[in-house]
Design a protein that fits this description.
Layout lengths: L1 H28 L6 H8 L5 E9 L1 H10 L10 E10 L2 E13 L2 E9 L5 E8 L7 H11 L4 H5 L2 E2 L4 E2 L1 H6 L5 H21 L3
């Protein structure tokens, strides 16, 4: 009788653990800046204040992104996300938005800095488990994407966003092209989500 009772408790514990797993996976996707002051100082050295605005990224936003891009958000990327509006002397000089993206070695978190017209200004790796996420990589990716708009960056990918065009692949010195493609997808999703969810 005691064994049956313990088995029932074990099954309940396993069920609870299984139910918690999707919540933990989802928590990975709903990124915010871990240290907003330090990150914003890096991305916008001349800024003197910022404001965070939380929005729900839902299936409607996901559908609109699919219309904009050849790929969309994963369902685990839906939920509440934070956009940081960056100010200098009361004037908006940019936005910062953190996104999780699947890289060849696992999830990485990238903080993207966008200009008021949603061109790419800067970025930093908030979380990355590879030596490839180094200052030299940031410099090279910025030389490729810096100042570019959504439509300009879209032209760098083929095969539903999974690969670089041949001309971009030749231009990029980074050997891991799958990593570069994942970074570009992250940049595109960030620009698209910001423009749709925080339009006002």
């Amino acid at each position: 009788m005691k064994r049956i009772k313990n088995t029932g408790m074990l099954l309940n514990l396993m069920l609870l653990t299984t139910l918690c797993l999707p919540m933990q996976v989802n928590a990975e996707a709903y990124c915010a800046l871990r240290d907003p002051v330090e990150a914003i100082r890096f991305l916008y050295p001349h800024a003197n204040s910022h404001r965070s605005i939380v929005r729900a990224i839902d299936s409607e936003v996901r559908e609109k992104i699919m219309e904009e891009l050849s790929f969309s958000l994963h369902f685990n990327e839906l939920g509440k996300h934070t956009l940081y509006t960056i100010f200098k002397g009361g004037e908006t000089i940019g936005f910062v938005h953190v996104r999780s993206e699947l890289a060849p070695w696992g999830l990485m978190e990238v903080a993207w800095a966008l200009s008021p017209d949603l061109a790419l200004d800067n970025f930093m790796f908030q979380r990355c488990r590879s030596a490839i996420c180094a200052p030299d990589t940031i410099s090279e990716i910025l030389s490729l994407l810096g100042g570019k708009s959504l439509d300009e960056i879209k032209a760098y990918l083929i095969d539903g966003g999974e690969a670089l065009t041949s001309s971009i692949a030749q231009q990029v010195k980074i050997e891991n092209k799958a990593f570069v493609a994942s970074l570009i997808r992250s940049a595109l999703k960030t620009i698209a989500v910001t423009g749709i969810a925080w339009k006002e």
